Amino acid sequence: MNPIAVIVLLAGGWVVAGISAASENGERPVRPDILVDDFERDSYAPWVAEGEAFGPGPAPGTLPRQMEVTGYHGRRLVNSYYGGDSTVGMLTSPPFTIERRYLAFLIGGGGYPEETYMELLVDGKSVRRATGPNTAPGGSEELDWAVWDVHEFEGRTAVLRIVDRRTGGWGHINVDYIFQTDRNPLEQLKPLETTVQSRYLLLPVAGEGPRTHCRILLGDRVLRYFDIQIAADDSDVRFWAAIDLRDYRGQTVRWEIRPRSARVLVEKRLRQSDAPVWPENLYREAYRPQFHFSPRVGWTNDPNGLVYYDGEYHLFFQHNPFGIQWGNMTWGHAVSRDLVHWEEIGDAILPDERGTIFSGSAVVDLDNTSGLGRPDQPPLCAFYTAAGGHSYQPCPFTQCIAYSLDHGRTWSKYPGNPVVDFIADENRDPKVFWHEASRCWIMVLYVRRDAFSIFSSPNLKEWTLESEAAFPTAHECPELFPLAVEGEPNEVHWILWTASGNHLIGRFDGRRFTAESDVLRSEWGKNCYAGQTWNNAPGGRRVFIGWMNSDGSAYPGMPFNQQMTVPRELTLRRTPQGLRLFARPIQELESLRAKSARFQGVALGNDSPSQSWPVGDLLDIRLAVQNRSAEQIILEVKGVRLSWSPVRGELECLDRRITDLPRDRPLHLRLLVDRTSLEIFALDGSYVMSFCWPFGPKPGQFTITARGGDAVIESLEIHELRSIWENITRQGEQEKPGG
């Protein structure tokens, strides 16, 4: 029987396919697939490009002014939107032999069979043609599978041609991952089901590439939902994301996956394991901070839920367990007994139908005012924003409670959530603490720019709006805490803080905050944001930690992204300018000293303008320099330069500048140098500069130079530090992803 050519509608796009009754007769063993092209390179060669539409090579995803392109495989694809819809062009493949029954590929873009299409030519004749799905305004840039049955051409030589002749709307074509196969991929696109046999489902995470949207359901109940960039092969794996489904062993879960084309990739790469799979050199990676906290894997940002209880400091943090970019916000969790050495104990609070889990705080409800504890066990109560705009069923942002009765190892969400309903915009980031004088709980909440709202509650579950605190420049992540003036224990003031570190000093009576200062700064560098302080810290200390927000360039190739600052103790002191906040690294960091060198009275001047010392990997440097007549004093630590101008009272580093240093005093500095960061504390912490920088695991030099006159190094201490991860062990048995 001769094959019959028919035109069918596939996923919204028109495909010319050959169908033959004879093709159903007989079966043969399924042979391995043959890749024709995946376009994972910078140029099209050996394909031949004509015109301008396809650009210089395969596109790295979405092009300028194009809607987001999804559904492609790997990192690159054919995309003829270079220059917009007005350009035209054509791509022609080298000849290849048809060796399998089907030719499958991903296709999207315009749906015009005579203007935007891919065709198969055999003996110079067009025998198959496919287009994208779009012909009307709107539409989608999602690629989907198309399949041609080419069994009658097996053994013959063919050429593929990708054509863009259209200059109007949807005048472009997207193509990717062309391969020959004996199995029709469309038959594999039925809903994916997985019987849970182990505690974890594992998926490999790539450093970049198209996003896949996944929901895992049991019946109609959504167990997990997340976006992920799945690594198509092992060479691109940053880490293996672990989905804990221990409560569903033996049950069959169903996946909902978008784009639909990613279903094959999910099934191909999905593994099961009874333990997470961590990087083999976990905590020893070249660009892993060695005395700053970073998560084992995934993205982190704001510190959350800082609370001390029963010998442990709890550090929760915004965490993406499925990628190294922001998204899937979850509360990660780590604990420490000394604020230096941290043990990550797994994600604590997971996204649900109310939304992903944005920032917040935690308290110990010692008197069980909430009724969520037991007589012998007060609850740890975490307050977080349910970010409804990021849910699988979008809804408003609200404030919710989760609580723990086992020292934070497991968490339950309060059935009466939300405890504060939607107010306005993206109201978020509840900071909760106990106010002893009023005998009630206080919540400070971001509701709109330049102001925070203050609520009170007798039981953590019912909240009353008390006032609004005006705060020019305020934006998200509020913090409100008391500090006594140093040396004056009865002179207590309150600090109202916003994400940037800007703050007000004032009074708080349990209902209303009254500012007594202008807006003050706490940070002069580039990379400190959304910091918070610990509730219940022993000895009444006020200890701060912040997110070292950056573009991620300090962590090349790492399985994680971003880090925290070192914990800093805050104090309030009187200065000639009035009350000011000071920040200095916690004393516990001194326990990391491995090797120290000290120097005094080192002259800098015309005879010896520079002094230099070899330094190691991890550093804590303390320095006091007295200027005598120098115009400029340059410090260089492992290639990063700090410049002090005593005459102008300026200190500059990495394009950031402090401009009001005292001109008649020695410069006292403390520098903390990790593999990926530099923190500078000037004048005992009255000024702080925080930077992310990829020093890496190499030694270097510390150099001081006086220019235009004399100076003297009054004192210099160089302490080389040990890693906080030296004795850390991975939690759980290590299995290979296929284990």
From TrEMBL:
One GO BP annotation of this record: sucrose catabolic process
A matching Pfam family: Glyco_hydro_32N
Highest taxon listed in the record's lineage: Bacteria
All residue ranges annotated as the Glycosyl hydrolase family 32 N-terminal domain in the record: 292-578
Keyword vocabulary terms for this entry: Glycosidase, Hydrolase
GO MF annotation, one: sucrose alpha-glucosidase activity
Hydrolase as UniProt keyword: yes
GO cellular component term, pick one: cytoplasm
Keyword Hydrolase attached: yes
InterPro entries assigned to the protein according to its UniProt record, in alphabetical order: ConA-like_dom_sf, Glyco_hydro_32, Glyco_hydro_32_C, Glyco_hydro_32_N, Glyco_hydro_beta-prop_sf
Residues annotated as domain Glycosyl hydrolase family 32 C-terminal: 588-720
Family: Belongs to the glycosyl hydrolase 32 family.
Name under which the protein is recorded: Sucrose-6-phosphate hydrolase
Lineage: Bacteria, Pseudomonadati, Planctomycetota, Planctomycetia, Pirellulales
